[in-house]
Write a structure and sequence with these properties.
Strand order of the largest sheet: 9-10-11-13-12
Shape: globular
Helix content: under 10%
Structural class: mainly beta
Number of helices: 0
Order of helices and strands: EEEEEEEEEEEEEEEEEEEEEEEEE
């Protein structure tokens, strides 16, 4: 681990595959990394030249929540307005200029006030103060939690999109949400997890490979205090610090090796698990977060551990060796 340049003090950070954003102590948003789609929100034209240190997001707004994915970023202002910037090819930035790049924070349509927001690869979901869930963007696999979007997608008329928030079907109220590549999951106040969207690799955890257009209970009797999804995998953290994961590519995450019914991606770690599988470890965790092929968690003693794919040193253990079990992140001397 190395310090992010600029000397800023952040209260939260969110990372995607190629960019990152954070909120400082004054609730001001800063972003860095890839800006090919306008996802760092500076208001300047997209460029292939990466921002090598944090730059302040345009508009001067203050935010209470933040999320970023591979090509777009969204945040909730302290007054509850959802704003997005970056790629809007599928309406994932929530504005009518579908197919364009949104280079500075732009209010999501619909005039709904939100408290929490999460970004998938081509869709976005958010919660209102009473826990109602809304989603917008691409609905090819029902990741918006509805059977159909509001109109054919401009980029591909064979798919449905929504450029304004749609209420997730089922009427459930959630305490938190998380989004993977093409699926979404929500956690109720009593700790029950529900998922919807693409399920070809078991990422919904319901024991099937059937896409779901409405929130579907995750299999098993396990309840969670937190969930985190990324790519084709979802993981949950229980109140006693155990981690369960389900979906694709679980061997590097420490899950069971179960063959997919579709061809696996290249590599030495390939598996699927359509129901929650507990990570085998004696550690108890306080928190978890997922990257693109990695999971990191803070153990009860405050020590940070990571595991999964270690390309480019993503696990922070001083090597590039993939890890199937939690491995302690090195500290600077």
């Amino acid at each position: 681990p190395l310090p992010v340049a600029g000397g800023h003090l952040f209260t939260t950070i969110q990372l995607s595959g190629l960019s990152g954003c954070g909120l400082d102590q004054n609730k001001v948003a800063w972003c860095w990394g890839n800006q090919q789609y306008g996802e760092i929100g500076t208001g300047t034209p997209p460029t292939p030249v990466a921002a090598m240190e944090p730059v302040q997001v345009a508009g001067g707004h203050h935010y209470s929540a933040l999320t970023t994915e591979s090509e777009h970023t969204c945040a909730v202002t302290t007054s509850g307005v959802a704003e997005c910037w970056g790629n809007n090819k599928w309406g994932q930035s929530g504005s009518t200029g579908v197919g364009s790049f949104v280079t500075s924070p732009t209010a999501v349509g619909g005039s709904i006030m939100f408290t929490h927001v999460v970004a998938g690869q081509e869709h976005t979901c958010a919660l209102t103060a009473d826990g109602s869930a809304y989603c917008w963007g691409l609905n090819r696999y029902h990741q918006l939690g509805v059977s159909s979007g509001t109109s054919p997608c401009a980029a591909d008329a064979s798919a449905q999109c929504a450029t304004e928030p749609l209420a997730v079907s089922g009427g459930l109220h959630f305490a938190s949400l998380t989004a993977g590549r093409q699926h979404t999951c929500g956690l109720t106040a009593d700790g029950h997890a529900y998922c919807w969207g693409r399920n070809a690799e078991g990422e919904l955890g319901d024991g099937t490979e059937i896409d779901r257009a409405s929130p579907t209970p995750v299999a098993g009797d396990v309840t969670f205090k937190a969930i985190s999804g990324r790519d084709l995998v979802t993981c949950g953290l229980t109140s006693d610090g155990a981690i369960y994961c389900w979906g694709y590519n679980l061997s590097p995450y420490g899950g069971a090796d179960v063959s997919c019914t579709i061809p696996n991606q290249p590599g030495s770690f390939t598996s699927c698990q359509p129901t929650p599988t507990q990570l085998s470890t004696t550690l108890a965790f306080q928190s978890i977060d997922m990257g693109s092929g990695q999971i990191c968690g803070t153990a009860d003693d405050g020590v940070l551990y990571c595991w999964g794919f270690n390309y480019h040193g993503a696990l922070g253990d001083g090597t590039t060796q993939d890890r199937t079990a939690p491995t302690r992140v090195l500290r600077q001397p």
